[in-house]
Structure formats: C-alpha cells, structure tokens
C-alpha cells in the first residue's frame, strides 16, 4: 500500500504492508459538483436559509462589517469575498464596508498573507482591520455568557449596522464544528472572553468533542455570543481534500450552519476499530504550520488508537510550536499526570493562554506515545513529551520498536482535521461507514 500524506505544502510518501492496515479513515468527500466553486457560493447567496437575501439586508445600512477568517484557516476568501461584496453593493452601493480579520488569540495576519488570502485588489481597495484580542479600549461589553463569563467583542463588530461572516465548516476537536458562531467567539472576542469560554471544566466535558454540538458547553457560549453581537448573516463553505468548495450555505447563523454541519457529518463521519498504531496528519498547510494547530489531528488519532498504542503524527510546523505558554507548560512540568491535575484545578476566571491545547494534548499523551515528523528541533519535540523523527521511514522503525508485538495493526488518517471519528467496534474493520 503506497500512501501519499499531506505535509506542509507538499506530501510525504510511505509504503506499508497491506496486511497491517485495518482502515484508511478519511472523509468520504466523493462529491463531484456540477457547478464551479463560485457558482456554488452564488447559489447559496441567492437561496439563504432562515434569512432574507444579503442585498436586502444591506439596504439602508451604513456600517457593514464582514468578519473573515485569518491566515490559519484555508477559507477560499478569494472566491467568497468578491461575491459577498458584490451582493452587499447590489443592495447598497454606498455602504461603508469593513473586513474584520478574526484572529481570535492568534498572531496578527501579515500583509503578504492577506494578499495570498484575498488577492491584491481587495487588499488594496477595501478597508481591512485585523482584530487584536488584547486591545481592550476597542472592545464592547455585550453581557454575561451562559458560562458566567463576560462577553467583550471588537467594537467594530459591535457597532456595525449589519454584521456578517465568511468561513468554512469542518469538524472541530472541542467546539464540535468550526464555522458559523465561531466567527464572533473566539474570532473577534477579547482575550478574557475566549479564556473563560475555553476553561478546563468545559474542555473536559464529554460533549466538548469533535462532531458534537448538543450539550456542548463551548458551543452554547459561542452561539449566545453570535446572537448578542447581532451576527445577521453567514456565508460558510465545505471543502474537499484539495481545499475546493463542494458545498456552501448562507443565511442565519444557526440555521444555515446546521445545514452545513449536516452535509459535513454525512460525508466525514467514520467509525474506527482502534489499532496499535495510528498514522495521522493535520491536513498539510495552513493547519500544520505549527504544533499548536496539529493537536487537532492528534485528537482524531486519539479516537482511533488503542490504550498504550502509538500515534505517528506528520506536521511540518514551519512556524514553530505556535504558543509560548503552550510550550512552557510542558517544559516546566515533566510529569503528564501532574500537569493534567494542575490544569483541571485552574478556575474558569483564571484560565491561562493555551491551557486548553495543553489539556487536549496531555489527554492524548496519557493514552498513547506520539512520534512526530516535523521541522522542529529534537529538544522542542522532546519537551512536548513526543519522540522526534526526521523521516517517515525513521518514524515507522521507531513505532515498531515501541510496540510489543512483531505484528501490529494500523489505522491511517490522511487528514485528521477533516474527519469525525467514532471509536466503535465494527464487524468489518476495513469498511468505512457514513452517519
């Protein structure tokens, strides 16, 4: 079996004996659209769910704000944004439009990244503001979240006459799914609001998992925030393995998002019989540009590996580990069980940066050993309690040495970010089942 696995902007190849491989756990996006990507989005805009058309909503609105994803998300904004702007100006040619980049707690998006994302024309001609979660003087207080945390969001979004958002829908490792309401919280919220929402009690909830929205405490906060911010309209897309648009929804933040979620669930949910070894990637660039983001792929592998097994993760991490606190929490506490105890003891109001990512990663590491193929130096990898490898062949040899038996089973997850994995024993372990 010859595998081609995403890594950075390219691929790494691996040969595996067929007898070892139980399942290839990949999104079953065998959808062949009959329309172009732009036509798919246009059709969604012309047929909004639970809302009037965007051109009608834009009538008589002065300050219109479009929340757009940042450089860490593969949203095809070059296609979406021109169509959204066209629809707004159709209803209101003189609207003051601002594109607000939803960085959440991420670093500032660079100009070159904006050009790569939107194209030079939009970057040159449109007003683009990058959200800063620490700029408290430009935040607005919108009330108390269901979690009892304070909701502060970017004043540009809060003061808009019409607020809308672009984005994409994929499985998310603790919010259930990306897209929709996440554009507001964490997208354009204050650091304090995001911290409270990402508290250790919520992250430890059995409902704060990939593919789960019902009873998910983080989702409940996020949806409340979107409503309080008066997010009136979303345009969200679903992408295939080549990051091409295969589905789009537009309209109400909850109803349109639910439609997109149903589409993703239909094609992306698979059932896994846990194996001794799981090989997983973070889907390549941009989501594998740092180790912080690669925890998402690991959380998928967590559901497909046996207790005490091995996970082989491919993530280029060209930008490094991705979070200072993320790194230092591991560096400062070398015992994983103790580190988890410390995180669970942190009160919601005292949540520290990156602790949720640390919490999920520790949970994975307590279940399985992780071998990492990346561009990171060995010391950094080891400080994360992972085993460094410099090639897939070296990683496979390390995995073989770690596993007790000469023969072992393997699950392969070509893109851990895009798939919803349910750890369920099935009769035919080679069969992928849609839900």
Question: What this model shows, in words?
Answer:
- Helices cover 33% and strands 25% of the residues.
- The chain has 435 residues and is of the alpha/beta class.
- The strands form six sheets. It has a six-stranded parallel sheet with strand order 3-19-15-16-17-18, sandwiched between helices.
- Helix 3 links the parallel strand 4 (63-69) and strand 5.
- Helix 1 packs parallel to helix 3 and helix 13 (336-344) crosses helix 14.
- The longest helix has 15 residues, at 77-91.
- The chain is globular and about 70 Å long.
- The model is unreliable at 425-435 (pLDDT under 50).
Concise structural overview:
This protein is α/β, with parallel strands linked by helices. It contains 16 helices and 20 strands.
Tell me the layout of helices and strands.
Blueprint: E1 2-7, E2 10-15, E3 21-24, H1 37-46, H2 54-58, E4 63-69, H3 77-91, E5 96-102, H4 111-118, H5 120-125, E6 127-130, E7 139-144, E8 150-154, H6 155-158, E9 162-168, E10 171-172, E11 176-177, H7 191-197, H8 200-203, H9 217-228, E12 231-239, E13 245-251, H10 255-268, E14 269-272, E15 275-281, H11 291-302, E16 305-314, H12 324-332, H13 336-344, H14 355-367, E17 369-373, H15 378-383, E18 387-389, H16 392-402, E19 410-413, E20 420-423
Helix pairs in contact: 1-3, 11-14, 13-14
């Amino acid at each position: 079996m010859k595998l081609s696995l995403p890594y950075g902007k390219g691929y790494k190849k691996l040969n595996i004996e067929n007898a070892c491989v139980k399942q290839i756990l990949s999104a079953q996006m065998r959808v062949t659209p009959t329309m172009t990507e732009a036509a798919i989005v246009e059709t969604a805009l012309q047929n909004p769910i639970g809302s009037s058309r965007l051109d009608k909503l834009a009538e008589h609105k002065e300050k219109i704000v479009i929340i757009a994803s940042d450089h860490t998300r593969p949203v095809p904004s070059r296609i979406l944004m021109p169509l959204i702007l066209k629809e707004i100006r159709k209803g209101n040619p003189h609207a003051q439009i601002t594109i607000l980049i939803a960085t959440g707690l991420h670093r500032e998006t660079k100009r070159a990244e904006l050009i790569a994302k939107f194209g030079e024309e939009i970057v040159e001609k449109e007003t683009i503001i990058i959200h800063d979660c620490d700029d408290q003087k430009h935040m607005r207080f919108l009330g108390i979240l269901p979690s009892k945390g304070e909701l502060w969001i970017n004043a540009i979004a809060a003061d808009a006459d019409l607020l809308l958002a672009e984005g994409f829908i994929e499985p998310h490792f603790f919010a259930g799914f990306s897209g929709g309401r996440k554009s507001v919280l964490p997208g354009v919220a204050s650091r304090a609001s995001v911290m409270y929402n990402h508290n250790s009690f919520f992250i430890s909830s059995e409902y704060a998992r990939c593919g789960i929205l019902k009873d998910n405490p983080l989702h409940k906060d996020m949806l409340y925030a979107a409503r309080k911010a008066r997010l009136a309209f979303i345009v969200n897309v679903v992408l295939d393995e080549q990051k091409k648009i295969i589905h789009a929804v537009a309209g109400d933040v909850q109803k349109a998002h639910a439609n997109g979620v149903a589409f993703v669930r239909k094609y992306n949910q698979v059932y896994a019989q846990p194996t001794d070894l799981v090989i997983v990637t973070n889907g390549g660039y941009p989501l594998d540009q740092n180790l912080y983001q690669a925890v998402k792929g690991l959380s998928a592998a967590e559901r497909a590996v046996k207790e005490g097994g091995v996970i082989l993760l491919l993530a280029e991490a060209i930008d490094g580990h991705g979070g200072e606190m993320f790194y230092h929490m591991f560096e400062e506490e070398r015992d994983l069980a103790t580190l988890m105890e410390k995180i669970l003891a942190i009160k919601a109001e005292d949540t520290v940066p990156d602790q949720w990512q640390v919490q999920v990663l520790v949970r994975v590491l307590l279940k399985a050993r992780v071998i990492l193929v990346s561009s990171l130096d060995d010391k950094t990898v080891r400080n994360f309690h992972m085993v460094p490898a410099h090639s897939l062949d070296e990683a496979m040899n390390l995995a073989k040495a770690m596993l007790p038996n000469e023969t072992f089973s393997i699950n392969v997850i070509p893109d851990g970010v895009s798939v919803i994995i349910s750890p369920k024993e099935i009769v035919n372990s080679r069969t992928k089942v849609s839900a």
